[in-house]
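the two lines:
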Amino acid sequence: MAQEDVNVIDQPEVMKPRMVTIEIAGKKVDVPEGITVVKAMWYAGMDVVRGVGCLGGFCGACATYYRTKDDPKVRTCLACQMAVQDGMSFTMMPPFPARKATYEIQHLQDPKQDLFNLYPEAPLCRNCNACTEACPQKIDVREGVWKAVFGDFKSVSEMFMDCVMCGMCTPVCIADIAPNLVALYVSRAQGAHFTDKPVGLDARIKEIQDGRYNDEWNKILKMNEKELAEHCATVK
Amino acid sequence: MDIHALQQIVHKTRDVRRKQTIPKFSPADRDQLIHKYHPDFRASAYRPIKFGPNEGDKTVVELATLLEGDSSIQDNADLTPQYSCDVLVIGGGGAGCAAALHAHGSGVKTILATKLRLGDSNSVMAQGGMQISVAPEDSPVTHFIDTLKGGHMENDHALLKVMVEDGPSIAKWLLELGVLFDRQADGNLHVKKGGGSSKPRLLTCSDYTGLEIMRVLKDEVINQKIQLLEFAAAVELLSDGQGACSGAIFRDLDNQRHVVVAAKSVILATGGIGRLHIQGFPTSNHYGATGDGLCLAYRMGAKLAHVDTFQYHPSGAVYPEQLIGALVTEGIRSEGGHLVNAKGDRFVNELDTRDVVSSSIIRECEEGRGIRTMSGRVGVWLDTPLLDAEHGPGTVEKHFPAMMMQFERFGIDISKDPVLIYPTLHYQNGGVKIDTNSETNVKNLFVAGEASGGLHGRNRLMGNSLLDLMVFGKRSGLTAAGRAKSMKHGSLTLGHVRQFRAEAKRHGNASGVISPMILPAYTRKV
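prediction for all of em together
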């Protein structure tokens, strides 16, 4: 075992967990340093139902405001992806009543013009950049809103591929834009209306409909266990 | 030792390893490896289920206990429905959304109920992609064969044929809804090679495939104005007195009240069991993955298939502590990332099936060639910087933005340093047995997605889950909707619960727990 002992990663924080004092929604609690914000809530004895989803940084359920010690700046994070530190203060963002436009994506006549009917507030951006600063995914949200308004749907769809729809860009907007919802519309329109139809896919669908593989299916599905296993071994 | 010092061996051996080819195991060697090291073969973790449709079948203790668990609903509960619909979908992930959209699209009254928010699911985290045979050199038959091999030849042939043949039209449906799959220069769909697949077949949206699909499907569910019941946890199904399903009872998690929904058909799309932490494994699963649908269906008499086999994804993070169990996408290995032990050696073909790769990682660690952390975990290196070395600087950042960001938050640059990984509980290979229309042996009770069983055999192939969700979500939705038009609502009874309780009593009573679990008990009891 001597040899194996060499291969141990130093984790002083694990060996001697240091307790830190943090504030959860205004209440002071002591929790082990370095655990995630959501685990800190569990540690403090809180049941969390609203505000936890995938626990992997993808679903956007755990949008949280936080401030570190002596820093006036209130920042945003996903609670499952942020470690607590001494003096930190945080509170989860309640569901924000942003307006989502509804639309039949396939039946849009002029998606770039329709943006202004669905989200008339989109061109009213006053360039304050608060949305960009609020984004825990580091998306240049403000730039994205402008690109959407100027019809560069392709860039918007690429920029917002990281968007987890946490909605933290919305409460800070002084023009009442919900940038994530605007970007979602724009991305879907880009996919449904401004992207080439893949010809290979249509060809494959037709092949299946026309029974192109029927002979092969008949052969395979009639095989006994042994024959099938042998056949499988030939596919590499 | 300092982690950077330990990582040096990975950097030092990289050039030598790049020249190596590691052959895949022969079928005999692979079986031997799996039997020795895969958690599915740890006999002490299993026990027979005492009663019910799968009496005598073995499964993990954690699941057996829940399956035998008692209902939280009293026999004399008030069953006056607050809502009534044609199709009730339970679960708001990929399968649930696909089912609801197709049922609604057929013109029937549909309700989608979910215990967290719409979309909070494992689907949203799927990074690796979606297997669909769209490439000219590929075919649905090859997809079938690859999946069968991955599933140890135990997959239900009829389900599997349906899945691979429906795949291309599912891709078309998603494209029409605006899903932005990666493209080749000629406009065709870009395909990547996945573990255990003979042909490149993975459709991807960088490493956000599940997120992109779910953003679109959620948006579409809202656009179609499908009635939603969020934070509504299903606690019991209802039966019509003649063995068919006729609705469900939910607990509103905001106010703890019961909500009764009458439905002509019920589609369970409740996902998997990762949060049961079977055998003490960390998990890549979302907060609500507690196997609720299995318990509900089982109490109603639905038969389960392959409930003794689970998928341990080879690459769950082991370091840092905050990310334990989180997935490091298989895409890294698809693009050539090596698995490296403490001696700097590769030990498995990284693109072998998940059960083989996981078993070999467990072997390395059990035989002392792992790297340990002070919190008592162990793992092997996944050489992520190799991708930049192989395909040019910036590759990791460009192809795996989600991974980069996740580790960056904890001060780790995975394009520069390898990550420590160990298998994490990822997927329930089996589930409620279904037919090709996604219906169970209980009439009007459908199950779609991870909660269903049979399709994947004893090991799901990477990228087949997203397709499973869409195909069987669609089939269940269409079948349930088609049936609704020519039938009336059944009566609402708890006959099956009474029956189940009686059977439990004959077997020395239930396991002493209430099921379904709904959410894991992570809150510290102070």
